[in-house]
Amino acid sequence: MKIKVAHPLLFSWVFPNTQKSRFSQTTTMLLAEGNQSSGAMFTLLGFSEYADLQVPLFLVFLTIYTITALGNLGMIMIIRINPKLHTPMYFFLSHLSFVDFCYSTTVTPKLLENLVVEDRTISFTGCIMQFFLACICAVAETFMLAVMAYDRYVAVCNPLLYTAVMSQKLCASLVAGPYTWAIISSLTLTYFLLSLSFCGPNIINNFVCEHSVIVSVSCSDPYISQVLCFVTAIFNEVSSLGVILTTYVFIFIAVIKMPSAVGRQKAFSTCASHLTAITIFHGTVLFLYCVPNSRNSWLTVKVGSVFYTVIIPMLNPLIYSFRNKDVKESVQKLMNHSIQLC
Questions:
Q1: Mean of the pLDDT values across residues 16-30?
Q2: Core vs surface per residue 259-276: b (16+ CB within 10 A) or e
């Protein structure tokens, strides 16, 4: 709340000397109340209610994060060093791996810290920054999957024109789009979060600073921020799924018309990994939107949040590596080369 203070000479005339000190104290208190949000502290409860599981959960999440980091960074490295993988499909896949690595790195270290320390607080700045970065990664991944769907559409429906259509300029533009919109969306939502006041106690019943849990502890009216978040989320989900469903309808029609069974199998194999990643990511998001309002909702939300912030970034490189012949061959060659060096 902003407080406009009139000119000091006006106060000297209006208030007697006996009231100057009292008024000064009151003004100072009100100004401190208006500015206290910047110094607010939040407490991330995480999984603190399961005291006996803190160490096992720490080991599980540490293992998952290690696999996530090695898998996504390894995928990026393999794509860069293998000329055979310098194609639009792997170009988009490398950016998906980059987003997954950043997403996991934004969330998991704080989750691991809160599992081994008693002080589970996070500063207002730290909480807002975590939301800002996580929001960028989530929105970027949403539209990166849509871009990859368009790439598969061109590859299956126009194979002879694939190289000409998916030029370097177009690929760069298709990648820049998700990042740009993700930053714009995140900046807008963060701006309205910064306009809220937090009076405490700011106890967040989650392990990550999500929009819904931040506004739930605000002591000011979060209506505009909530509506904006809802509209943005619906737009992102509907538009990205619209692109994905439309492209796969055309892909399915094109595959059905193929005269060769081998060609149909190859086309389905090309799209299988992407379809798996889409189903897991959007399935989890839609499930969270449909969580009923009950006493068990918070546990369900936390489990769902773990899935799409921690598990999915680990699964994507595994999905694409296990179901992709070129990636598996590249990994095998790299491992053989490493063994020979040792």
A1: 40
A2: eeeeeeeebeebbebbbb
Q: Do the Cβ atoms of 74 and 317 come closer than 8 Å? A: yes
Domain residues of the chain, as ranges? 42-331
pLDDT in tens, 240-258: 999 999 999 999 998 888 8
Does the pLDDT at position 65 exceed 90?
yes
What Å distances lie between residue 107 and 65, 177, 198, 212, 292, CA to CA? 10, 24, 22, 16, 25
Q: CA 264, CA 267: separation in Å to the nearest integer? A: 5
Instruction: Return the higher-pLDDT residue of 292 and 220.
Output: 220
Q: How far from 335 is each of 14, 174, 258, 329, CA to CA, in Å?
A: 82, 33, 38, 10
| Residue 188 binned pLDDT confidence (cut-offs 50, 70, 90) | very high
Rounded CA separation 167/243 (Å): 20
Concatenating the DSSP letter of every residue in 181-246 gives HHHHHHHHHHHHHHTS---S-EEESSSS--HHHHHHT-SS--HHHHHHHHHHHHHHHHHHHHHHHH
What is the value of pTM for the model shown? 0.84
Report the DSSP pairing between strands 202-204 and 41-44: parallel
CA 307 to chain centroid, in Å, comes to 11
SS (H, E, C) 103-136: HHHHHHHHHHHHHHCCCCEEEHHHHHHHHHHHHH
Overall CATH class of domain 42-331: mainly alpha
Residues 193-224 pLDDT 10s: 999 998 878 898 889 998 988 998 998 889 99
